[in-house]
Specification:
The chain is of the alpha+beta class. 70% of the residues lie in helices and 8% in strands. Helix 6 packs across helix 7, helix 6 crosses helix 9 and helix 10 packs across helix 11. The protein starts with a helix and ends with a helix. The relative contact order is 0.06.
């Protein structure tokens, strides 16, 4: 007959081996948790059934529990069978690989041919459990808190330094001022990483991208506070940056992608609006195509900065110029017909504009960028860019081009003296 104590030892070893493979810290043995787990396994063996909750309730605070039954005659094979069952279950596996746990107790009891096992996990003994709050904070969580505070201090120093240096830089344009603050903040952040983590200071596309992100964050935070409150501004900066990092995970990837495309397409519209006065084309169709060209080109450039993709001028590049031209005018139509119609929308828009100190033109650009982003996501989601759609768009633009040429010709014919 297999030894229960040997099974407990093997189970404990397999847990730490699984954690090591994934770069997690190993768990410490806890005699108290082992006693609770053993008692729970004995109760299950006596009742000849499995249930959860008793061990967690007894352990108190931040704890997790795995229970199972298996059969066999060899201690090692029984332990391996238990471990494999738990690793195949997402809930049990998450307990084994939870980075917030630091202690483990294993208890095994035997009844008939079955071996009943309980794993009891708990967070670090640090925290507030001793004061009766029932909360434990793991070493991993303490590390996260320390990192957050360190970044809060870093951003505070960076904002103070940028504010100090701005008095020596004669910049009248608000966008240039924001980019200057972004440059200083990102440079200080990079230096902090070099000192704390011994990482290299590399000026690459990621560095340039984060200068741009820090500039946008500075504009957003400053519009809320209006003045340079270093403590609050740096706190908001830290929260926003952590949020951006969090969005990088797979779970939040769709949200991040949508926000990135919103910013990208809004920038494209902004560039297009700045170019329109220099185009001086009386023809609306030509203007629309140039706007689509500006938006798509801006999007392509940002894609190159964000990833290793190349800037290709192919049929899809031309297609998206046409699609974005249509999307731009759809957005303008919706803005005029929906966005500011009615008392509710007017009040909502004015509240947002006053809160973030946005001008009417900037507010319109952000909304146009949002509408275009939604349309583009719908096109991608439902794959509306098949061959039939491509041909339909091209035919539509050819018809419009002929109508435009015809109207232009008729205009000049009328000007000929009879």
């Amino acid at each position: 007959m297999a030894s229960c104590s040997e099974i407990e030892g093997y189970v404990f070893r397999y847990v730490n081996e699984a954690r090591k493979k994934r770069g997690l810290g190993t768990l410490e043995r806890s005699q108290r948790l082992k006693q609770i787990a053993k008692s729970h396994s004995q109760q299950m063996a006596h009742a000849k059934k499995i249930w959860h909750g008793h061990g967690v309730h007894e352990a108190g605070g931040f704890a997790g529990e795995n229970c199972a039954i298996t059969h066999g005659s060899n201690s090692k094979s029984i332990a391996k069978s238990l471990h494999n069952m738990w690793m195949k279950s997402s809930g049990h596996k998450s307990n084994i690989l939870n980075s917030d746990y630091s202690q483990l107790g294993v208890g095994v009891a035997h009844s008939g041919s079955g071996y009943y096992a309980t794993q009891l996990f708990k967070g670090s003994p640090f925290g507030f459990g001793g004061f009766g709050f029932g909360v434990s904070i793991s070493k991993k969580t303490w590390k996260r808190i320390g990192n957050f505070v360190a970044w809060w201090i870093t951003f505070g120093i960076a904002i103070w330094l940028a504010n100090y240096l701005s008095s020596y830089v004669n910049l009248s344009n608000s966008l240039l001022i924001a980019l200057f603050f972004g440059l200083v903040i990102e440079t200080v952040s990079k230096l902090s990483q070099k000192i704390r983590f011994k990482s290299k200071f590399v000026v690459n596309k990621g560095f340039l991208l984060w200068i741009f992100i820090q500039s946008l964050l500075f504009l957003a935070v400053k519009s809320v506070f209006g003045k340079y409150d270093i403590v609050l501004m740096s706190l908001i900066f830290t929260i926003l940056v952590y949020g951006i990092w969090k969005l990088g995970g797979k779970k939040y990837r769709p949200v991040k992608d949508f926000i990135v495309w919103w910013i990208t397409l809004t920038l494209g519209v902004l560039v297009a609006n700045h170019l329109i006065p220099f185009i001086r084309s009386p023809n609306a169709l030509v203007t629309a195509i140039l706007i689509g060209f500006s938006i798509e080109t801006t999007s392509k450039i940002i894609q190159v900065l964000r990833s290793e993709s190349k800037f290709k001028v192919d049929k899809y590049y031309v297609l998206w110029i046409l699609i974005l031209s249509i999307c731009y005018y759809i957005a303008l139509f919706l803005m005029k017909s929906i966005a500011f119609r009615g008392e509710f929308w007017s009040a909502f828009a004015s509240t947002l504009k006053s809160t973030f100190s946005l001008s009417q033109s900037l507010w319109s650009l952000i909304l146009i960028g949002l509408i275009i982003t939604i349309i583009v996501h719908i096109i991608w989601k439902f794959k509306f860019y098949n061959k039939r759609v491509i041909l339909s768009i091209i035919v539509l633009f050819i018809i419009l081009m002929f109508l435009t040429i015809g109207s232009t010709v008729m205009h000049y014919i009328r000007m000929i003296p009879m």
